[in-house]
Sequence to fold (432 residues):
Amino acid sequence: MPASAAEHTWGVQRLRIRPQGALRGRVRVAGAKNSALKLMAAAVMARGTTVLHNVPRITDVECMSDLLRSMGLEVAWADGSTLHIHRPDLIVPEAPYELVERMRASIVVLGPLLAVENRARVALPGGDDFGPRPIDMHLRALEELGGTFVAAHGYVEGTTDGLVGTRILLEFPSVGATENAMMAGVLAKGTTTIENAAREPEIADIAAFLSAMGANISGAGTSTITIEGVSELEPAEHTVIPDRIEAATWLASVGIAGGDIEIAGARADHMDMVLAKLTEMGMEIVPTDGPEPGLIVHAPDRLHAVDSVATLPYPGVATDYKPLLVAMLSTADGVSIVTENLFAGRFRYIDELVRMGADIRTEGHHAVVRGRERLSGAPVRAPDIRAGAALVVAALRAEGETVVAGADHIARGYEDFVGKLTSLGAGVDILD
Ligand code: EPU
Fold:
C-alpha cells in the first residue's frame, strides 16, 4: 500500500487549506469505491478465494471488510491495492446494525446472501445527510425473484425456497436496487430481466466480475439487463474500474485553482456529460491513450458560469459530482442554476459554502449560484464524503485559511486525499 494512504487521512478530523495558486503535476485515481464495495459483497456468492485488484484504500472498504469478516469470511490485503477474500463453506448471513450504520452501502449484501444462503438478516439503514434513502425498490425486486421479507427490531429478514427468474421493472433506475437484483438473479432459476436498470459504469463492472465467476449476464450498462441463472459461481480475479468521482475531484481542484495537471487512470468514456459541462466552463480536457488512459487538463485562471446543470441517473451528470460543480460555479464568472434530481436533501453543504462567502440561493431542488472572484477562508464542516471534498476544493480559491472539520468523511471515499492534493501543489495539511 502507498505508505501514506492510511496515515494521511484516516482518523483525521480537520484539514487546513491555504491557497498556493495554480496546480501542476500528475495524480493517479484509485479504483472506484462504488464498484469495489459491491464486488466485495458479490464475493460472498462463491466458495474459495476471490482476488480483487485496484481496490481503493479507503475506510468504506475497511468497513465492508469488517462486515464480511463478521459473516465468517477472511479478508486480507496482499500487496498494494490487491484484496483477497476467502469465503468458507459456512457463513453467518447477517449484516449487524453497527456496520450498516457506519456504511449504508452494506445493504448490497442482501441480494447475494439471499441467493446463495436462501436467507439474510440485514439491519435497516437509517436516513442520512441526503435525507431519507429507502430500500423499497431493493425489497420489491428481490420479492419478485421469490424472496419473502419481514421487518422486525430494526432488521429486515429475508428467506426463500430458492429464487426463480422473472421480469423486474424498476420504477426508477436505482443503482443499489439494480445491483441487488442483478446479483440475486445470477443464481435464480431461469431467466431474469431487469428493466429500467441503472446504467452506471460500476454496474457493468460488477457484471463483468459476475461473468468471470460463471454468471451469464448480458446488457449490463444498458437499461435492460438479461440474466440466465446458473446453479453455482466460482471465485474469480478482477480489476476494479477507476473512480470517476475521484477523477472529477481533481478536475474540480484544477478548475478552481487554475493550472495544468494530468489525471492518470481516469476514463473519459465514463465521464462524458461532466466533461462536456467542464469544457463549457472553459476547461480544456484531452483524453490520453497508452497503457494507462488518463486526462490532460488545462484550466484558465477563472472559469465561466453555465446556464444550468441538472443531476440525473447515468449517463447524466451524477449527483456525486454536484457539490464539486457547485464549488466551481461559486467562483466562476456569471450565474448558474444547479438542479438536484436524485437526493432531496443533498444541498446541505451549501450552508457551509455560504459561510465561505459563496453567493448561493436554494429554492426546492434548485440552487442559483452567482460566481464570486474569490471565496473567504472560514471554519466549515464536511457533511458527507463528496461535500467534504468539495469544501476543500472550494478553499483553494478562498482568501486566507479554511479549516474543514469532519474530514474523516473524506477518508471514507478518497485514498490519500491530502497526499494527492499536495502533490499537485495545493496548500493542504492535517491539523489533527
Ligand atoms: N431510492 C428509493 N428506494 C430504493 C432505492 C433508492 O426511493 O429502494 C431513491 C433514493 O432515495 C434516491 C434515488 O432513489 O433518491 C437514487 O438512489 P440509488 O439507489 O440510485 O442510490 P444508491 O445505490 O443508494 C449509489 C451510490 C451513491 C450515489 C447514488 C446515485 C454507492 C455505495 N452509492 O447510491 O454514492 O450518489 O448511487 O448515483 O454506490 C457516494 O459515493 O458518496 C454516494 C453517495
Summary: The chain has two domains: 6-30+242-430, 33-239. Residues 244-257 form the longest helix (14 residues). Residues 6-30+242-430 form a domain with the UDP-n-acetylglucosamine1-carboxyvinyl-transferase; Chain fold (CATH 3.65.10.10).
